[in-house]
Model the fold of this input.
Amino acid sequence: TGPSLAVVGVTGAVGQEFLSVLQDRDFPFRSIKMLASKRSAGQNLNFLGRNYVVEELTRDSFDDVDIALFSAGGSISKEFGPLAVESGTIVVDNSSAFRMQKGVPLVVPEVNPEAMEGIKVGRGKGALIANPNCSTIICLMAATPLHRHSKVLRMVVSTYQAASGAGAAAMRELEQQTHEVLEGKPPTCKIFQRQYAFNLFSHNSAVLPNGYNEEEMKLVKETRKIWNDTDVKVTATCIRVPVMRAHAESINLQFENPLDEDTARDILKKAPGLVIIDDRTSNNFPTPLEVSNKDDVAVGRIRRDVSQEGNYGLDIFVCGDQIRKGAALNAVQIAEMLL
Ligand code: 2RA
Done:
């Protein structure tokens, strides 16, 4: 029983994580199609004890598909997403292709489920739902519960982003470079054209005329859409750091009304999908390694922002698994809401 599924980009890092999350959450489905590019078609993969052959993604791949999870890059989503919707499929798209499109819900289930109100499988009507960018999801999982309690006027985010955000090849190259550097060999730099191991650099996305890179502007624009608030001031600096698969983010918040750190801690303790790691005595706070392969976003360093009057400002530090909550888990949670 359950819907028929398709996973587009199934051989990629997020595609593989879709399968892990579907399994972990015992997602009900009657059939599943493993779709990828021509290059990957024909591969065998084992899922839930059954053998599947990866099929090439084509225009008619979605005839009998109720829900399709996409993570195969923006151009694939642009070409095949609308075709799937036309054939009655509900597409959950992890690419940035449609995130800012009017009428396309941009959803973090714990944050703004109302944005996809009324979209359900079995109504014969297709739809397209966008998964936000990983750094946006991880940031808003913590910032939104606070924002709901006391409106955020301004948010300043500094991110420390893992290799996984640039794909499985970047993760492999970080590992390879680390060995090479330790062995005194010249590092192989195919992905970022610079040494990554024992280094960090401004996010590899394109720099726009305003001096921000695309990753930073995603955080700005997606926050405004998800919070349905065009006035909130957001600025971001996104950095790529030599960490495998979990992002870390420093978040500074300025509120319309005072919000003291104890109240903030209580709110975050109660918020879904968060775990508080905030032990000043032992200097124990969130780390990327500890959240890797886990569902929850970890929050710590909760403290009053001493640069602001009274309790109008707060600083926090979050870590979240980029492949899981940053992409695959969020998308599967969206799919669960379609049932
Ligand atoms: C990154 N957010 O980390 C991107 C991946 N979706 O580069």
Observations:
- Helices lie at 13-24, 74-86, 134-149, 168-182, 214-226, 261-270, 288-291, 324-336.
- The pocket of 3-amino-D-alanine is lined by residues 133-135, 161, 165-166, 215 (CB under 6 Å).
- The first strand starts at residue 4 and ends at 8.
- The first helix runs from residue 13 to 24.
